[in-house]
């Protein structure tokens, strides 16, 4: 998938990972067919602090980060509607705090433990658990799932 448009470039610049290089209906036509699926994965911007603050409201001072996440979620929903006639399903994954190589250098064990106290399951997730959500979305088990954002966060954002 290439051909990032100006709008996607702005979102990509705010996000910084290239996740906004999304398929247009024409570019995604190669995926067409029953059971096709495109799954986007992104970090959830819904928890307010890595230090275990109140959840559900974004990260203070990081509105650009929260806006890029919301944009990706909206993009997944819009693409799901656009590509559904071609039997292409589009979904997004919003992982909560994940204990992986990315966080190992950025967070001490003490910080991770404080975050875990705010997660109803009492721990951070793993990359394998997020991969399991990806496998579900890529499997026939999700053949009627499109336009959704799956929160894989240990219950962090239960309302």
Write up what this structure looks like.
The chain has a single domain, classed as Rossmann fold, CATH 3.40.50. The chain has helices spanning 6-15, 63-83, 101-104, 109-117, 127-138, and strands spanning 36-41, 88-95, 149-152. Helix 2 links the parallel strand 1 (36-41) and strand 2. Mean pLDDT is 75; it is low at 1-22 and 45-54. 35% of the residues lie in helices and 11% in strands. It is an alpha/beta fold and 159 residues long. Helix 1 (6-15) packs across helix 2. The protein has a 3-stranded parallel sheet, with helices on both faces. The chain is globular. It contains 5 helices and 3 strands, in the order αβαβαααβ.
Structurally, how many domains make up the residues? 1
Strand and helix order: HEHEHHHE
Number of strands: 3
Return the CATH topology: Rossmann fold
Largest sheet: 3 strands, parallel
What overall form do the CA principal axes indicate? globular
Helix/strand structural class: alpha/beta
Mean pLDDT: 75
Strand content: 5-15%
Fraction in helix: 25-40%
Strand order of the largest sheet: 1-2-3
Q: How many helical stretches?
A: 5
The CATH superfamily label reads: NAD(P)-binding Rossmann-like Domain
- Taking the alpha carbons of the first and last residues, their distance comes to 36 Å
Oligomer classification: single chain
Radius of gyration from CA coordinates: 16 Å
By CATH, the architecture is named: 3-Layer(aba) Sandwich
Model regions low in confidence, pLDDT < 50 over at least 5 residues: 1-22, 45-54
